[in-house]
Amino acid sequence: DAKTTQPPSMDCAEGRAANLPCNHSTISGNEYVYWYRQIHSQGPQYIIHGLKNNETNEMASLIITEDRKSSTLILPHATLRDTAVYYCIVRVAKTGNQFYFGTGTSLTVIP
Amino acid sequence: AAGVIQSPRHLIKEKRETATLKCYPIPRHDTVYWYQQGPGQDPQFLISFYEKMQSDKGSIPDRFSAQQFSDYHSELNMSSLELGDSALYFCASSEGFATNEKLFFGSGTQLSVL
Predict the structure, then answer these.
(1) pLDDT (0 to 100) of residue A96
(2) Cα–Cα distances in Å, from B93 out to A63, A102, B2, B87?
(3) B46 CA to chain A: closest CA distance, Å?
(4) pLDDT value at position A7?
């Protein structure tokens, strides 16, 4: 049921920006894009979410293309503690849960 | 701030035994979700509840059942345990299930079936 496609793995140098892409070409007009991350066996941690406008918070920025078919999560200054699996999730606009994890991107921040 | 609380943190059971996992959502959150994450796997959705009623069902085995109580806490009951049930079980909660409501996850229960 996952509606997203992410690269399986990425590396990023410490202190540089990490740009994690996500494709969600079948997204509907009122469905939000969420990003979570999971640091080894811990509970998934919320990062950011958005509908159509770009969003920024203290953790990251979310850039959503105008056609909403893809998005990019940006960690502006990656640290070693950002090494984790990052999940891009489209929350389906129906009653019930419809909050399904896909495969995610394993990000490794390199010293 | 209060978070989602899961108990126990670790649980060891033998094959064919039963197990009960508990989840206490964030205060005022009325929606609870259960996920199973096997070793090296991504979280798989099991079941969710909204206002004490089942709201959605995923890949939950028939041997498992769950419910949400009047105080909004939830319990996942697992019977006839199998080796393949060994996994990390996460609970999450949200304030309703509107598409712009984010989920908050607990630290999980690590179940080992021997």
Answers:
(1) 58
(2) 26, 19, 12, 20
(3) 10
(4) 97
